[in-house]
Every structure is written in C-alpha cells, then in structure tokens.
Amino acid sequence: MKIATYNVNGIHARLPVLLRWLTETQPDVACLQELKTPQEKFPEQALLDIGYQAIWHGQKSWNGIAILAKGQKPEEVGRGLAGDPEDDQSRYLEARVNGVLIGCLYLPNGNPAPGPKFDYKLQWFDRFRARAAELLSSNSPVVLAGDYNVIPTEMDAYKPERWVEDALFRPETRAAFEQLIAQGWTDALRQLHPNETIYTFWDYFRNAYGRNAGLRIDHLLLSPDLAGKLASAGVDHEVRGWEKSSDHGPVWIKLDL
C-alpha cells in the first residue's frame, strides 16, 4: 500500500501538476494540504476522471486538507480536533482506507514567533498529540501524514543556524514533535534513511530548489503495528522542478500489508 502526502500550495493553481503526479506515481492514498479553496470549489470531477475519489475540508483562501484514494471512497472518520470549539481552521481530517486509519494534517506555521500565531501553533500541537494518543490506544493501524511545519533536527535544514528563531525550528516546536514521537510513533523517512540529507520543501526564492537548499517539514508517522511493515519511503524530488509546481515535494511510503 502506497501512501503519500503533498502540500499542493493551492489546488487550482497546481491542478495540472497534481494530476500528472497522481497519474505517474499512482499512490493508493494521497493526503493533500493547503488546498486554498472553499468546500464547494474542490475539483472533485478532475480527480474522479483519473480514478481518485476524495473527501475534503476546504477553506476560502487558506488552509484546507483532503484525502484521496485510488478506486474507492475514503471512509471519513472525523474532521477537526477536539479542545477548542472556536477553532474554525481546516487543518485535520481522518479517514479509513483498506483498513488503515489515515490522519491528514496541516499544522500551523506559527510565525512570527513569539506571538499569537506561535501560541496557536503550540496549542494546536497539544490538541493533536491528545488525538494521536487516542489513536494509539485504539490499537488500529494508523498513519499520520502531512505538513507538520516542524524541522525536527539540524539535519533536516540547509544551514540550520538560519532557522534558530523561526517557529518551525524553535526549541518549543521541536520539543512538541519529540513528545509526539515518544508516544510510540515512527518517523518513516528517518527510519529508512537515518543519515541522508532529505528535504521536502524548497522556497521559491534564491534558487533554493536548484541549490537543494531545503527543509524536511512533511512527515509520515506510523503506529507501532505498521512500523515493521514499512518497505520503502522517499520524496518525489523532481516534482518540485516541474513548471508551476508547489514549493513542497510529495513524500511517500510503501507498506507491506
């Protein structure tokens, strides 16, 4: 089973890229972030035309997530996180596909930090960790996939010293991610590529992609029962170089189920 995550940075602007990537790589499940489209304008038919059914949680101009499945409809489990009834940002969606529970997330960026946006990021992270703990206790096979807006270690950033004060790399952010992993989750890319330089995001400025001056901020975390079934993992690095592409590259895993 191949599961991917991809921050599309505007699904309408990147639709040709998304459709090409799905057609060429054929993931069984694809989690998308940053749709930047209202619920009613999601391009459902274009995805159906290439064999993908979807559930999605749109939001005008910002945020938005979706879960796509090849040849079947994802069975929605829930949307949003408990703990803040006033939070209306579309950042979390759960579905079951082929017996695997998929959590698709777009964690807040948090900049500028410190400040209200950084406070929201950490509060959202707390709520997400609470949900992750519930999922672990359910004993279901779970994959938590998405744009975490977290640079876990210095190894995950080109010139990490430049990111010390950034919300993606501040000590509080990395500590929150470490606490999440400590629940029992496996960081799939690092599990199979512990010492490699791997990036999933390259800024549009200063030829970052051409210089491979990137960040690893898109992650797939596996519950303990899936960690032993991890067969391969990688980043579709070349997609970032396609015309009018997102500033993220798709990240994927293959599970031997």
From TrEMBL:
<feature type="active site" description="Proton acceptor">
    <location>
        <position position="248"/>
    </location>
</feature>
<feature type="binding site">
    <location>
        <position position="247"/>
    </location>
    <ligand>
        <name>Mg(2+)</name>
    </ligand>
</feature>
<dbReference type="Pfam" id="PF03372">
    <property type="entry name" value="Exo_endo_phos"/>
</dbReference>
<feature type="site" description="Interaction with DNA substrate">
    <location>
        <position position="248"/>
    </location>
</feature>
<feature type="binding site">
    <location>
        <position position="7"/>
    </location>
    <ligand>
        <name>Mg(2+)</name>
    </ligand>
</feature>
<feature type="site" description="Important for catalytic activity">
    <location>
        <position position="218"/>
    </location>
</feature>
<dbReference type="GO" id="GO:0003677">
    <property type="term" value="F:DNA binding"/>
</dbReference>
<keyword id="KW-0479">Metal-binding</keyword>
<feature type="domain" description="Endonuclease/exonuclease/phosphatase">
    <location>
        <begin position="4"/>
        <end position="248"/>
    </location>
</feature>
<feature type="binding site">
    <location>
        <position position="149"/>
    </location>
    <ligand>
        <name>Mg(2+)</name>
    </ligand>
</feature>
<keyword id="KW-0460">Magnesium</keyword>
<keyword id="KW-0464">Manganese</keyword>
<dbReference type="InterPro" id="IPR037493">
    <property type="entry name" value="ExoIII-like"/>
</dbReference>
<dbReference type="GO" id="GO:0006281">
    <property type="term" value="P:DNA repair"/>
</dbReference>
<dbReference type="InterPro" id="IPR005135">
    <property type="entry name" value="Endo/exonuclease/phosphatase"/>
</dbReference>
<feature type="binding site">
    <location>
        <position position="147"/>
    </location>
    <ligand>
        <name>Mg(2+)</name>
    </ligand>
</feature>
<comment type="similarity">
    <text>Belongs to the DNA repair enzymes AP/ExoA family.</text>
</comment>
<feature type="active site">
    <location>
        <position position="106"/>
    </location>
</feature>
<feature type="binding site">
    <location>
        <position position="34"/>
    </location>
    <ligand>
        <name>Mg(2+)</name>
    </ligand>
</feature>
<dbReference type="GO" id="GO:0046872">
    <property type="term" value="F:metal ion binding"/>
</dbReference>
<feature type="active site" description="Proton donor/acceptor">
    <location>
        <position position="147"/>
    </location>
</feature>
<dbReference type="InterPro" id="IPR004808">
    <property type="entry name" value="AP_endonuc_1"/>
</dbReference>
<dbReference type="InterPro" id="IPR020848">
    <property type="entry name" value="AP_endonuclease_F1_CS"/>
</dbReference>
<protein>
    <submittedName>
        <fullName>Exodeoxyribonuclease III</fullName>
        <ecNumber>3.1.11.2</ecNumber>
    </submittedName>
</protein>
<keyword id="KW-0378">Hydrolase</keyword>
<dbReference type="GO" id="GO:0008311">
    <property type="term" value="F:double-stranded DNA 3'-5' DNA exonuclease activity"/>
</dbReference>
<dbReference type="GO" id="GO:0004519">
    <property type="term" value="F:endonuclease activity"/>
</dbReference>
<dbReference type="InterPro" id="IPR036691">
    <property type="entry name" value="Endo/exonu/phosph_ase_sf"/>
</dbReference>
<feature type="binding site">
    <location>
        <position position="248"/>
    </location>
    <ligand>
        <name>Mg(2+)</name>
    </ligand>
</feature>
<feature type="site" description="Transition state stabilizer">
    <location>
        <position position="149"/>
    </location>
</feature>
